[in-house]
Amino acid sequence: MVLAVESLNRLLHCWILLISLIFVVNGQFPTTLEGPFKPVTVPVNYSIIGQVTSLPVDDNPPLSPEIEFQPQQISLSLSSDLSSVWVSWITGEYQIGDDIEPLDPQSVASVVQYGVYKSGRNNLAAGSSFIYSQQYPNEDLNNYTSGIIHRVLVTGLDPDTMYEYQCGDPSIPAMSEVHYFRTMPSPPKDYPSRVAVVGGLGLTYNTSTTISHMAANHPDLALLVGDLSFADLYCKNGTLCDFQNCSFPQSPLQETYQPRWDHWGRFMQILTVTVPTMVIEGDHEIEKQADNLTFTAYNYRFAFPSDESGSTLYYSFNAADQYKWLERDLFNVNRSVTPWLVAAWHPPWYSTYKDHYREAECMRVQMEELLYKHGVDIVFNGHVKAYERSNRVYNYTLDPCGPVHITVGSGGNEMNLTLEHADEPGNCPDPSNTPDRFMGGFCGFNFTSGPAAGNFCWNEQPEYSAYRESSFGYGILEVKNQTHALWMWYRNQDRYSVGADGIYIVRQPDRCPS
Fold first, then answer.
1. Which of 150, 179, 263, 356 is catalytic?
2. Is-catalytic flag, 374?
3. pTM reported for the whole predicted model
């Protein structure tokens, strides 16, 4: 469940820009060189806490294609090769019920017509198509078969270049409108300017604000750190429900309303049709079904640069057994070419909120030393429905060479925000209840040193927690050069251009392991 996002790795050579950067660093935002910082907890703004309202999807015209087999849910994602981009879309309508007949994937072609912006779409790329099903052995649960999912790898692209494209089947004809994207730059010219990071999206009015604000900030790449559609929180009639209200609350197969994925994909197209978007699986993507199949919708609906890892559940890309894959992948990184090393997975190691507190402790125990030894700079997580940024930390100890851990799991979701902290009186969880029920294992032991020695929780905000806040929003990582990257956290209640938390993360390659 690890995503090593490498190749935020381009170097600015413009002396004037570097002078400007130094001014901004000293005049507006703090840097990690000035840390560690005293912990800050932003008071809860209760005006934004309330009933989470799902977007109406049944009578929203943009959610349905105008003609048969017109492409919908169009999305871009990166390949492992910077000269290639995946284009994915769906044609035809899903089917749900007992007596359903799957669509024929071979009945519609998978074609992308593309070219450099304003030079004509004279190039063609063809790909593959398929469907997937979500099936249940229980009576009264609705089986589901997707529309036809198309996937095309467009190759031979020039770096840092604007392209225009259409996708679909030109023989019907059923082609999309003309859309645009820009390829990633290549070293040593420049860095990707803006990488948006968010988790816990769902399909609510909060989601709509998050994505509209994000799009207005013009990211070059989007990273979604799990908990995407929350289809598993919806019952067979399409209404939001909890586990006890589902049709079969005692069943090991979790009820999930798959059309929610289609609604979510159609909505997200306002971002994904122009911004390459990389996804990581969260616990809400598990969706266990008949024959113990899991992650079916996640595996089929998204394209991954997974050739190196052999799995859609952990992979790396240049932008950019699991432990052995990660060890090999980190060993092969050339830090003179890839100075920035960013990792992302779903459950956080350094969250101080009560929900999911130390839930992934066994993962941290097994893998943290490996990431530290290879000089990982930043770690992004979701899962917790709140925002938190750490000081540089390693093994719960302040360390100038440890990564900055950032939890950004409150993009919109269907479950409201997480408010309580584990260090507040009466909130420390029972250690026996903390292990993740899917990953298993127990590593929730008391601290043996430091201010919390002998306890499972701190009795105040831990020193490794620099900033925490319960608000909906997202962040943008802007890599400036080999050593400086600006991180900004944007809240939905603010204007899209106003950041609530900002810091320059500064690498020290001469001091720290790499």
1. 356
2. no
3. 0.90
